[in-house]
Amino acid sequence: MNQSIKIDPFGFREYDARWVFEKDINEQGVTNLGKGLGTQVKKHTKKQNPRIVVGHDYRSYSEKIKTALKKGLVSTGCIIEDIGLSLSPMVYYAQFKLNADAVAMVTASHNENGWTGVKMGIKKGLTHAPEEMTELKEITLSQNFVNGEGKEEKIQNFAKIYKENLISKNKIQKKIKAVVACGNGTAGIFAPDILRGIGCDVIELDCNLDWTFPKYNPNPEDLKMLHEIVKYVKKNNADIGFGFDGDGDRVGVIDDKGNEIFSDKIGLLIARNLAHKHKESKFVVDVKSTGLFSNDKILKDNKCETIYWKTGHSHIKRKVHDEKALAGFEKSGHFFFNQPLGYGYDDGINSAIQICHLLNTQNKKMSELYKELPKTFQSPTMAPYCEDKEKYNVVNDVLTEIKKLKDKKIKIDNQEIKEILTVNGVRFSFEDGSWGLIRASSNKPSLVVVTESPSSNERKIEIFKFIDSLLQRTKKIGEYDQKI
Fold first, then answer.
1. How far apart, in whole angstroms, are the C-alpha atoms of residue 282 and residue 199?
2. What are the residues facing 382 on neighbouring strands?
3. Of 228, 259, 290, which marks where a domain is finished?
4. Is 198 domain-assigned?
5. β-strand 305-309 against 240-244: which pairing, if any?
6. Which domain holds residue 421?
7. In this predicted structure, what is the pLDDT of residue 39?
8. CA-to-CA distance for 442 and 388, rounded, in angstroms?
9. Is the four-CA dihedral 71, 76, 82, 84 of positive or negative sign?
């Protein structure tokens, strides 16, 4: 029996689990993951029959994986509340609405076809952090499972409850014309309905469900997806373009002129809009985010504080929770709104709604609001291939090199490195506010590279060239997914 179990230990990532199905994990492996999660939930909740909300995305094999996962959960004594085809935020919301003990969402988010995974959480509004993932990995791989008698219940029409919850409290007066792009992912059956429901004039783009992702992966950081939205915004003379990822917890934004606005800048606009009403608030942003938060005049005038923290939806939402921050923003498009604006978890559609509120209250076009921010030159997120077993070592080697350069006051493009932040990889900053970042990806065999300069586009490129030269010297990186 044991020989038929396949489960690659590397699939247990920092804050969720991801594998290539059949190659790295098989159905029996998924069932064991369910047994591991059920054992863990019982340990933390101290309940004989904890209730777990389960959902799945629209990939061809997701339902099969969910069935295998549920089998494991039920064998430990868990009561399954299956809400069917879902977005990750719909599962998170269901935990509050149904007052359940834990969640398990079968999704590989924006990863290519073939990938699968599970997003899990026990405490409401939070997902597993590295400590819980390490514990889950140990329970699962050691097969140290508890037994019990569980059962499964199907929750009917929960999608309607989720949609109505967002629509009912977010009506807007202004008729905003919005392009809604879903890359043929699961958000296609949610986002258009909800945004229409609050009062938007919606133009749909790739909202029909097609698990082959015929054009591109539903990923709002993917330039192909963004360029397609740009075309549609211009063609339809729209006010805004939204791009949602495969499981609906992220959003990308295109303004009325067809400019791609990175999510950290959108976050800053939202934070500015909220700061007047919520003075002395805290905002949490990830290390890939713009340096503009640090010195923003509106945030400072309203005594708001910004904390730079580890990239990853689980890290940011936990930090938002721990700091009692009003909101958190991630460069990849995860936004987190705490009470009174939300339950603290990331919901791409709620984020789009907050942007609609911004356009509604400010009564300006998105391009005008964006122009009010100081200009900076930002790279997209770039990911050079690097093996899982090598990636953290490579980052440590690069950190050692950068520290030496700082200590010796050696200039990069005529400027000295002034500060090194190591909460997540290496983020090094210069006198003019330019910075570069190298970190290990949490869910793929790759590194993550980002650069930004308030001075010039050339400077942004020079910092990238400097990072790339350090990485090439390690001889442990492969092709980039995209490059500037």
1. 30
2. 449
3. 259
4. yes
5. unpaired
6. 377-474
7. 98
8. 9
9. negative
